[in-house]
Amino acid sequence: MEYTEVKISIPTEHTERASGIAVMTVPYGIYIEDYSNLENEAWEIAHIDLIDEDLLKKNREESIIHIYLEEGMNPQEAVSFISERLDAENITYKIETDGCSEEDWADKWKAYFKPTPIGERLFIRPTWIDDYDSGDRAVLNIEPGAAFGTGTHDTTRLCLEVLDEIVTDEDTVLDIGCGSGILAIAAMLLGAQKGFGVDIDEVAVKTANENAKMNSINESDLQFVCGDLADKVTEKYSIVVANIVADIIKLFSTQVRDFMLPGARFIASGIIDTRADEVCASLENAGLKIVRRIENGGWVCLVCE
Questions:
Q1: What is the predicted pLDDT for the residue at 48?
Q2: Cα(272)–Cα(126) distance, integer angstroms
Q3: Strand 260-272, strand 237-243: pairing
Q4: pLDDT given for residue 71 in this prediction
Q5: Strands 222-226 and 194-199, how do they pair?
Q6: Average confidence score pLDDT of the chain
Q7: Which of 67-71, 142-146, 199-203 has the highest mean pLDDT?
Q8: What's residue 136's pLDDT?
Q9: Of 21-25, 163-167, 195-199, 238-242, minimum mean pLDDT range
């Protein structure tokens, strides 16, 4: 099997936080180069004080995080996911993919993103592909740009499949951490009356609004704004969706009921399976009932009422 390597260079003082973000793009296994404490670690691990001269020349102020994506996975999802969250944490970084800079990768990743049917009613179409057969499915045209959300990552796909099953023309949807806007836009195309999306990243919000316009959705019906979790949300919704990360879902679990109509459902995704139980506990402690748990590729999506 061939793998795509993504390398993230960050200041060593941010290694722990950045590696916690990077590991969320793949459920298991990352490799970290951190030489900031080389001498002490060489002695503690190998009980030697003679260290290769090349290692001693390594940059002590920079760490490099390596992640490896299996063949068929969309590297842009990983790059977008990591970039958005490092920006939100105010961590400076540089990302390379297979020896290419992030800028050079801007078009190459598109080879991984193909027209994709989702569930029974939805069809994801990259805007640069004109030859496709969507049948009678609702077509979601998407240009993710630098924002997370093409539908190819397991966490996004799980949310889309749930939305495909449950959205009716009586629903309204709130999307927390909207990224490219794909989830809220999908809900609108599936019949939802009204939507609202929030993301901490201004670039993501701009991309989401452009994608909504591209799908002929009026701004009066679906709006994306820049904000921190639900600080800009003033209404209640019948569906709330958050495809983010375990720690933020745990934090948001204490707030989400304030934005749910009676009988509303909360879809939480972006959860690595090893942390699912603690997220479940947080949701239940917040008064939510988990009615469905879906797993794929080491990721978990929870549906709550």
A1: 40
A2: 27
A3: parallel
A4: 63
A5: parallel
A6: 83
A7: 199-203
A8: 93
A9: 21-25
Q: Say which CATH architecture domain 148-304 belongs to.
A: 3-Layer(aba) Sandwich (3.40)
How far apart are alpha carbons 135 and 35 in whole angstroms?
54
Q: SS3 of 8, please?
A: strand
Q: Are 24 and 88 in contact (CB under 8 A)?
A: no
- Give the full edge-to-edge strand order of the sheet including 122-126: 116-118, 122-126, 138-142
The CA-atom distances, in angstroms, between 255 and each of 39, 58, 157, 251 are: 46, 45, 25, 8
How far is residue 77's CA from residue 134's CA, in Å, rounded to a whole number?
A: 23
Specify the DSSP class assigned to residue 273.
G
Helix, strand, coil abundance in the chain, percent, nearest 5: 35, 30, 35
Task: Output the pTM of the full model.
Answer: 0.72
Which tokens belong to 217? 């959705």
**Domain 3-109 belongs in CATH node 3.20.20:** no
Burial class (CB in 10 A: 0-12, 13-18, 19+), 294: middle
Residue 222, token pair as written in the block: 């679906």
Residue whose structure tokens are 């793998």: 3
Q: Which residues contact 300 (CB under 8 A, 6 or more apart)?
A: 269, 271, 272, 273, 276, 279, 293, 294
* Strand duo 237-243 + 222-226: pairing: unpaired
DSSP 25: G
| β-strands 172-176, 194-199 pairing | parallel
